[in-house]
Amino acid sequence: MSEVKKIATRESYGNALVELGQEHENLVVLDADLAAATKTGTFKKAFPDRHIDCGIAECNMMGIAAGLSTTGKVPFASTFAMFAAGRAFEQVRNSIGYPHLNVKIGATHAGISVGEDGATHQCNEDIALMRSIPGMVVINPSDDVEAKAAVKAAYEYEGPVYLRFGRLAAPVINDNADYKFEIGKGVTLREGKDLTIVATGLCVSASLEAAEKLAADGVNAKVINIHTIKPLDEELIIAAAKETGKVVTVEEHSVIGGLGSAVCDCLSEKAPTQVLKIGVNDVFGESGPAVKLLEKYGLDAAGIYEKVKAFIK
Amino acid sequence: MNKLELQKTANEIRKGIVTAVHSAKAGHPGGSLSAADLFTYLYFEEMNIDPKDPKKADRDRFVLSKGHTAPGLYSTLAQRGYFPVEDLVTLRHIGSYLQGHPDMKHIPGVDMSSGSLGQGISAAVGMALSAKMSGEDYRVYTLLGDGEIQEGQVWEASMFAGHRKLDNLVVIVDNNGLQIDGAIDDVCSPYPIDKKFEAFNFHVINVADGNDFDQLAAAFAEAKATKGMPTAIIMKTVKGKGVSFMENNVAWHGAAPNDEQYAVAMEDLKKVGEALCQK
Ligand SMILES: Cc1ncc(C[n+]2csc(CCOP(=O)(O)OP(=O)(O)O)c2C)c(N)n1
Ligand SMILES: [Mg+2]
After folding, report:
1. Secondary structure (3-state) at A51
2. Which residues of A are catalytic?
3. In this structure, are residues A287 and B96 in contact, taking their beta carbons and an 8 Å threshold?
4. Can A6-171 and A187-312 be said to share one CATH topology?
């Protein structure tokens, strides 16, 4: 097998901002003393006058972004997911969500794949928080191609958008000519009749790998990539549930309130189906290399494979 | 401890910082090294603590509000006897109790979990308030970064501490002049820091060189003598202090030395140690 190309989606974020910035004068980027890590530093190099460093003051940054957006600018406010969705939650809810302002939140370093910084920086709750805000679009791209497309779609969309990016380099899986990104539309990556795996973000590639291993055992899994957790592609998920029965959700996020919960909310009401939620099981993360942590928390292909096997027995 | 002993101890603590971060291949050496003398002074001279009894009820408390400089705190706690110095190399490794940011559930001597900037000072205020409420006379110390004080929560906590006249609280600001994105006065200037704390009803002590033990000793004596208001010690330091290529270099805020750089850093510190032994 040839080496798959790997790029962290935070890199994609920085690069997409530069491309968009060339086309759109009204795009501005905010950061909170993490420009090198969030990759908005790439934008800063290209457009120093449109990069606003707010210092270590995330709540204030969200308020400033809200104000900027009321005057026609399109702000992308960037920091780690922990501080964007966590610390500044109420500012996002009341100053951006409630007035439905055109602010884009670029949240990097989501999930346990933050690695060595440990639990204080590993946000496994951001999807839950953001999807509970009325009118907030929540996007969790799976690779470089999707991340760049998502940033562009977020710019075109009028209203608040939460974009979730990772620190760890992720395999490029959507690098094909007919790839098309549409907010709210899931993508079926693999057909299968025995069960459906619904994955998001970093876990999409691991789920595809797990599906290959299952196929070797004679189990054919359909794999759906849900990049937009809100609004959820209910039609696609309901159809898949009706077709295959059992559904498994996979995410680098708490099993409480994330993709798994969103899928359950939908299915329990509209097409009751047994669902296994794979994610971070209501625990805090810890320090360690990202790849080892994904393994330990069962979010790599082997871990997903094991849990699916037990589930369909 | 006399000044020479403090200097020697601080130098050992610096070795531990560099060794831990090198072994972790990640972490924050710059702000750990700038505060190494402060950590040393607090744990070897100033604070009423007992490494044999880390949870002693009447102990003085320390909250590392700038939690990313955990290597500095851990190396100090190890030197002071809370846990083996040998464990420092497990920093940030999977399964180690030495988490990337201070974790009070697992690390002996850590009085408060921290790592999200701006939050530690509030917890320190809570500890100081509790002592006042129950008439105990332990003191509470907390260390903040000069970038960290851009967080609004720092000033909410300070307003409260000033209002409540918490004279058992000492807020220390490590004024090393740098944060991640550059110099603090380029990113979003917090200056004048002393006037701000004064306005929040603190007794303010400016320390011209926070890497000098005589100046630290004078500042903490003055803080102890201060009644009726909390104290803020604003100490000028050198980020990366003690390792030639890290000093005043923003690139060493959150990066680990490779093997070659590690050797150079340890050589720098070895020389300092040898010079101190000649004294
Ligand atoms: C709330 C929050 N925002 C951002 C960060 C990421 N971060 C870690 S260290 C740091 C810079 C700190 O600079 P300073 O306070 O000056 O610390 P020092 O120079 O002493 O290392 C930042 C932004 C964080 N840990 N917490
Ligand atoms: Mg600093």
Report:
1. strand
2. 58
3. yes
4. yes
pLDDT string in tens for chain A (313-residue length):
457 899 999 999 999 999 999 999 999 999 999 999 999 999 999 999 999 999 999 999 999 999 999 999 999 999 999 999 999 999 999 999 999 999 999 999 999 999 999 999 999 999 999 999 999 999 999 999 999 999 999 999 999 999 999 999 999 999 999 999 999 999 999 999 999 999 999 999 999 999 999 999 999 999 999 999 999 999 999 999 999 999 999 999 999 999 999 999 999 999 999 999 999 999 999 999 999 999 999 999 999 999 999 999 8
Its pTM stands at 0.96
Q: Looking at domain A6-171, which CATH architecture does it have?
A: 3-Layer(aba) Sandwich (3.40)
Cβ-Cβ contacts under 8 Å, A86 against chain B? 116
- Could you tell me which residues are beta bridge partners of residue B203? B231
- What is the Cβ-side half-sphere exposure of residue B274, based on CA atoms within 13 angstroms? 6
Q: How far apart are CA B182 and CA B186, in angstroms?
A: 7
* Cα A116 to Cα A133: distance, rounded to the nearest angstrom: 30
Cα dist from B127 to A51, A273, B2, whole Å: 39, 50, 30
Distance of CA A125 to the CA centre of its chain: 12
Is residue A250 within 8 A of residue A205, CB to CB? The reply is no
Contact flag B94-A289 (C-beta cutoff 8 Å): yes
Alpha-carbon distance of B265 to B15, in angstroms, equals: 8
Which residue range is the domain that position B55 belongs to?
3-277
- Residue with tokens 């009644």, as numbered in its chain: B227
Domain count, chain B: 1
The CATH number of the domain holding residue B159 is 3.40.50.970
Q: Give the residues surrounding ligand 1 with Cβ less than 6 Å away.
A: A 33-34, 56, 83, 87; B 28, 30-31, 66, 68-69, 115-118, 145-148, 174, 176, 178-180, 239, 253
Q: Please give the structure tokens belonging to residue A182.
A: 């549409």
- Residue A270 DSSP class: H
Architecture field, domain A187-312: 3-Layer(aba) Sandwich (3.40)
List of residues 6+ apart from B145 with CB closer than 8 A: B31, B65, B66, B69, B117, B173, B174, B176, B179
Cα distance between the two ends of chain A: 31
Task: Please give the structure tokens belonging to residue A99.
Answer: 């007035």
- And the tokens for A303? 């871990």
